Every structure is written in C-alpha cells, then in structure tokens.
Amino acid sequence: MRRGESRAKGPKRGPRKRTGAAKTKTRAGREVRSSSALAKQLAAKTRELDEALQREAATADVLKVISRSTFDLPTVLEALVESAAKLCAADQTAIVQQKGSIYRPVANYGYTPEAWQLLLTSEIGNTPANRAILERATVHIHDVLVDPDASGLTLQAATGTRTTLAVPLLREGTPIGVLTLHRRTVKPFTDKQIELVTTFADQAVIAIENARLFDEVQARTKELTESLEQQTATSEVLQVISSSPGDLQPVFDAMLSNATRLCEAAAGNLSLYDGDFFHLAASSIRSPAFVELAQREPFRAPTGSVHASVVATNQAAHIVDAREDPGYLAGHPVAVAAVELAGVRTLLVVPMLKDTELIGTISITRQEVRPFTDSQIELVSNFARQAVIAIENARLLNELRSRTDELARSVEELRALGDVSQAVNSTLDLATVLSTIVSRAVQLSGTEAGAIYEFDGQEKELLLRATYGMSAELIEAIQDQHLGVGEPIMNGAVARRDAVQIEDLLTKPPTPAQNIIIRAGFRALLIVPLLGRDYIIGVLVVRRKEPGAFPQNTIDLLKTFAAQSVLAIQNAHLFTEIDEKSRQLEIASQHKSQFLANMSHELRTPLNAILGYTELILDSIYGEPSEKMREVLERLQANGKHLLGLINDVLDLSKIEAGQLTLSLADYSLKDIVHTVFTGVESLATGKKLTLTTDVAPNLPTGHGDERRLAQVLLNLVGNAIKFTDTGEVAIKAATADGSFTVAVRDTGPGIDPADQAKIFEEFQQAGNSATKRKGGTGLGLSIAKRIIEMHGGRLWVESEAGKGSTFAFTIPVQVNRPVTSHEQMHPGS
C-alpha cells in the first residue's frame, strides 16, 4: 500500500483449521522463500565483495602507478582519474590543481577535446569544484538542473552533466585542488563511491606533494649545481689571476670560456673602453674574419645599439635578436660582421665598471634566438666584476713594477752620485774624480764609452781629461784632433749651454773627429756642457754603438754628473790656489814671527837699559832728584815695565806661532806658585780696596811642569781679575783630583757676555762691553795663557754671566812628562 492511501475493510472470518497436508505445503513454501532470500543476500554480498575487491585493486593499481612514476605527476593523475571514473561509473573525471593564486585543470578522463578545451579556458567560478575548495568539504549534487546552487553551470550544461561530485584535495587542511566526477544521468554516487573518491583525492594530494617536493629538490639541486659550477669557474678565474699577475690575456680567456659554458652560449667577447672606442681584448668567436676585423677596427657604439645602451646606463643590455639591433640595421661593420660572419643572434652585453666608470664590456652570444636568464646575466656580471679586479690588479702591479724599476734606477743613480760625491770629497786628485764620474755616467746611461773634456782658455781648445770604455788608439786619435769649441760635434752643446744628442752620426755631415768615432763603431752621442757661472768649463760626452734617442731621465742624470764634474774641476783649481796661498802665508808668517822675535830682542835691550838707569836715578846714585823729577821718573818706570810686558807677550806669541816655544819641565809646588802670585798682586788689590783671598787644598802633591810659565798664567788671570773688578773680591782656589790640578780665579767684576766668552781667548781680542775696553790691554794675555795650559796637556775656560762676575779656571796633569810643543799645537797630527 502506497503512502497516503488507506487500506479497505471486509467481514470477519473465524479461525480455520489446516490439515496435515496443508501444513506440510506451507512449510515447504517457507523454506523456498528462505532459500531465495539467502541467495539474494549471497549475491548482494558477492557484489559488495567484488566491488570492494575492485576498489582495492584500483587503489593498488593507483599506488603502483604512484610508486612507478613517483615524480611523473601527469601520469599519476591520469591513472587516478581513469580509475575513479571506471570504479564509480562516472562519465567524466577531472582534477583541478592550484597554480599560484588560481586553479587550473591538470588531468581528465572521458572529456571530448572540445569539452576539455572549454574546461581549460573556463574560470572555476561558481562551480561545485569551487564550493568544495571554499568549504573544504565534499560537494555532491544529484541533479544540476534542479539544484539551486548549481544553476548557470555553463560547462556542465555543455557537457550534459546531471550528477556531479567534487572532493577537495586537502594538504594539512589547506585546499590545493579538487577531484570532480560527472554523470550524464541522474544517478547519485553511493557512500562507498564517495569514500573511494575521497581515498583517490588523498592519493592525489600525496602524488602532488611528492612531485612538489621532488621539483623543489630538483630545483635546489640544480641551483646548488649551478652555484657549484659558478664557484668552480670563479675559483678557476681567480687561480688564473693569481698565477698570471699582470698578464690579463689568460684571465680574459678563462672568463669567456667559463661564461659561455655556464650560460649555454656559443661564444663571447671582452672589450676595453677608452671613453670613446671599444677595443677587442679577447674573443672566443670561431670566425677568424670577424675577430680580425674587430681587432683591426676599434668601434664606437652606434646610436641606439646595445653597446650604446650600456655606455648610457652602465647597465647590462640584452637583445634577443641581433638582426634587430640598430647597429646592424644601420650597417655598422662590426655589428654586421657579428651577425653575418659569426652567426650571432641573441646577444648579452654586461658592463665592466670601476666605481662608476665604464672600462669595458663582456658579451656572450647565441646562434639561435633564445634569451638569457636573469641568473645567467648575474653570472656574467660577476665575471665582469672579476675582470675589473683583474684589470685593476694588473694596473697596480704594472705601476708597482714601474715604480720599483724607477726606484731601482733612482737607488742606482743615488749610489752613483754618492760614489761621485765621495770621490769629490775624499780626494783632490782631479784625474781620479773625473774618471769616477765618467765611468758611472757610462754605466748608468747604458752606453759603451764616455769622456770628459776641459776647456783651455789660453789654447781655445777642449783637452781630454778622463775616459771610460775607449781604447788607447781611439784616445790617441781624438787627442790628435785638438778639438775646439767650434767643432760641429761640440758646438751645439757649447752654444746652447744645454745637452745635445746626436741620434745617428751617419746623418750628420762628416768631420775628421766624427769619422774617428764612427770607425770605432759608435753611432749615437750625448754631449752635456760643463757650465760655470758665465763661461764653459768643458763637456761630458757618452757614446753608444746603437743609434737612437736618449731617454730624458738619462739626460737629466748626466746633467747632474756634469755639475759634479764642474765642482770637481773648480775644487781642484781652488785647492791649487789655496795650496799656493798657504805656502805664501806660511812664508809670510815665518817672516813676521822672525821679525817680531828680532824686534822684541832689539827693543828689550834699550828698554832694559832705560829701566836700569831710571831705577839708579830713583835710588839717588847720581844725587837726590827733586820731587817733581822723582814723580816723572816713577811714571817713566811704570810705563817702561808695562812696555816690557807687552814686548815679552809679543815675543812669546812669536815663539808660539813659530813653533819655538818650549817648556822647561821640573818639579814645582803649586802652593808656592799661588803664594808668589798672591804676594806680587796684593798691593794692586789693596790699592783698589778689593779683598784678595786664597784657598789652597792641604797636602797638594808635588807637580812636574814649567813653574815659571804656570806662574805667568796665574799672574795673568789674577791680574785681569783685579784690573776688571772695581768692588768686592778676587779669590784664588787650588785643588787636586784624579791626577790633575785645578786652579780657579773668581771675581765679582762686570762679567762677560756669552757671545764674547769664546773670542776672548783669541789673539788681540777683548770682551765687547765698553767698561772692559776702558781698562785697556792688548788682548794677548789670555791667548798666551791658553796656549801654555794646552802645552801642559790641560784646558783653560771661563764661566761667567753678565753682571755676576767671572771665574777663569784651568786644569793640568800633576805630572807632565812630555809637553805638547807649540808646533804640534799649530800643526796637529804632524
């Protein structure tokens, strides 16, 4: 009875008794019905088991495909949708996979080509697949035509779909795709089928994840491989740089080789840029015609070309097809040759930058139209940076080598100049000095021979003074020529007063002297004049057998040698003059000393007579003189004694200068000398109201020296102290220490300015202040005293400060066994 229908009522019937036969028949019927039910149940179970086995077999088949094609995702997904379609009796099956931010179909089964193309070009939009993705749950629509949520499904309508199932592919709860099944009839999928499709969706997620991981591993492996290859290439280039310092060609070749290999390029070029033109420095292009053209003709980047872009922007420039490059289209020779001779199609040009300055480019090319990737561009850029480093290293190394060579030359030149200076300073032998100069000049100028000529003003010719590298025959032949300053070879340097070089003697008009030099094998000359202030002293000449110009540094060096030659010649002349003047002065000095000695003796004799008669008159031998006469006689006696002292000083000085002053050595008592001097000058001190004191150390040893001369020295020092001191005291102190006597005379006089302390010991010199000059004196006393002390092997000095008095002191050995003669003082070392 159907729902909504009612069941009809009839009359009641009473119980009816069944016979035995009827009962048996009923039981048999029941048994038949029971057997039929069991058969149906068995068939159902068998079908279920078959279906389960089919599902398991299908799942196993999918797993086999996954295991056999682990990383071949399309094969796995195609097998999966086919199994799902067959096991679930679906007409069409597809898998949509997430690709970035959108979803795209990746596998299908049962679609016609037209339907599949429609699926590929359709947006996922408002579809069951999109609902499954958004809801992260299975969407099952029994009939798309009556389901309100499935209205407007263009694809389903176009493909005749009625029943559809969409199962999301979830990875850790996140949708990465969807598996869809469609039936053209209204026939919902069973729970077991949905469960099977869900299992297939899980298998698809595993396959997609495995493929993703495999792709990541592959990409990472490729990245690491490329990185390793790049590092290896970089290491190779760095090794070439280190093994070829200063030699850029192997470095450039290695860079091009690695860049083309790693970037899958056919060839490459490396060009240097001078700010205007590109110059090909290295190339791996196999076209000899192109390479020869590029090397022969440096090129300026054509307007709009790839190289012009690099010049303008300092950025890498990439042209996919070189036949479209403006340089090629304009018919630029190098650009045309690159395309037509070298077969260049795709071209990459990377700048080599030093700071912001373009110094060159690295270009790599392909002979097919295939752009270079960003990583390849970065790789070539890295090689470009290494090329800049190599170029800079080479430049610095070449500069270092140049500076080292220059420094070595400078050191050698300084050493040569040192030898010359030493020769000039160590000897006055002109021949030795000039020989040293010309030999070093030849060696440092890289020539084979040289000579120095001195100008003889009387004969008006150049005299050969020194040679180097010249045979005796050549020297004799040149000397016979009697070269004058008008000689064509010499005249240019003499007239210009500057260095002149002859690069090839064969190009000059012949002269006898020139012919001699040519026959000796010389072709080039450098002539440097020896210049005085306003006249020519001579010339320095170096000769070379190889024709050619002389470097400027060689010319400058020989000018220095010429100046040394001038100095040597002038020194030799000055020494000759000084030596002659010294002999004349020595003779004059001897005559002066002899005159002074003679005059001193001649003056002392009558002066002693005058003093003797004056003393007799004062002693009243000839009668008692009047008081007025006595006063005059006493004044006469005092002046006579002063004059006698002056004469004695002059006599001593003349003896010293003549080397005739000698010491009379004997034992003496320093205490007695001090006492004698004290007694002699006490009256002078008393007359000026000065305090005169002595301080003699007790137990002084007996000295050995010239007692009279030492007393003369002490008397001079004490007498000067009393003369120049107006108030205060004069003190004498004597002591001994370390085998020497020390005697000091201290006064409270005006003192001596430091500027005058050295010169007061010179002959005829006094302190410069006016008070000193008013006291008078000849300025000989201290000079003689100093000489006497030095003859005793001692020293005399003064310690003074203006306005604070002075202390004159001397020290001498206690025992003087061999005096220093005045001759030894005048001529030390003789």
Radius of gyration using CA atoms only: 64 Å
> What's the overall geometry?
elongated
Mean pLDDT metric: 80
Structural class: alpha+beta
Q: Write out the strand line-up for the largest beta sheet, numbering strands in chain order.
A: 2-1-5-4-3
Question: Which band does the percent of strand residues land in?
Answer: 15-25%
- Main sheet overview: 5 strands, antiparallel
What is the number of helical segments per DSSP (H or I, 4+ residues)? 23
Topology:
Layout: H1 20-68, H2 73-87, E1 92-99, E2 102-109, H3 113-121, H4 128-135, E3 139-141, H5 154-159, E4 163-171, E5 174-183, H6 191-243, H7 248-262, E6 267-273, E7 278-283, H8 288-296, H9 306-313, E8 317-319, H10 326-329, H11 333-340, E9 346-354, E10 357-366, H12 374-426, H13 430-445, E11 449-456, E12 461-468, H14 472-479, H15 488-496, E13 500-502, H16 512-519, E14 524-531, E15 536-544, H17 552-618, H18 627-657, E16 666-668, H19 670-687, E17 691-696, E18 703-705, H20 707-724, E19 729-737, E20 740-747, H21 770-775, H22 781-791, E21 795-800, E22 806-813, H23 822-826
Parallel strand pairs: 17-19
Antiparallel strand pairs: 1-2, 1-5, 3-4, 4-5, 6-7, 6-10, 8-9, 9-10, 11-12, 11-15, 13-14, 14-15, 16-18, 19-20, 20-22, 21-22
Helix pairs in contact: 1-2, 1-6, 2-6, 6-7, 6-12, 7-12, 12-13, 12-17, 13-17, 17-18, 19-20, 20-22
